[in-house]
Amino acid sequence: MAPTQTITVTYPQLAKMIDHSLLHPTMTDSDILAGLRIAKQYKTATACIKPYLIPLAKKELENTDVRICPVIGFPHGNSTTKVKVFEAEEAAKAGGQEIDMVVNIGKALGGDWDYVTEEIRLINEAVTKYGAILKVIFENDFLKDEHIIHLCEICTSLSVAFVKTSTGYGFVKQSNGLYSYKGATVPHLKLMRQHSGPNVQIKAAGGVRTLDDLLYVMSLGVTRIGATATAAIMAEATKRGITDEPTEVALKPMATNQPGGY
Known about the structure:
This protein is an alpha/beta fold and 262 residues long. The chain contains ten helices and twelve strands.
């Protein structure tokens, strides 16, 4: 029988792995406020929000170390480069500290790598000029391994801070006519870690919904996740005795056939 794999973590370390996601299009301002209070309560890395909510987030998260993470070109990445640059720059100027931007998926699939590279370069320059960092969202459900590898190589060459698996809204039509998505999968996370430079971090979004999922992707080299299940994840951490002191816990592999979701 193989020995049980373990990982050593702390409670604050787990919290700072999480971008608390508040991106569903139906969320009202009161929903957003409730979500921001969860991010503040658990001291997550960021609250991931739509750009118009930056003023609300700044007010609610004042005097905390929870960073503001607006999304750009979300969720399909289809705006022109000029519009995405403007949106990203305005978000950074308004107080966005980490900017999650969706690539032009059609251009990536079509192999127009000059277009994709120049767009990422311009947006990265726009946000870093104001002290923010860029996370580039690939939407892996739409891509083949060769596209993911090439995007990792581009982002490494441009010194992008993070590469990210998914938006959580990249639904693919299945053979039964229904739409679903996988989000972050173990093979894709391994592929992204393998083909990204050491200074490029990996964000897993979609499909990481439990403490076990979080611990497992950490073991793969992931340093951030997108999640709506923050409260449940952190409650389970407390239940398992994870504290501010380093705590050794068992690893359980992620299920390979579950549908995506935050």
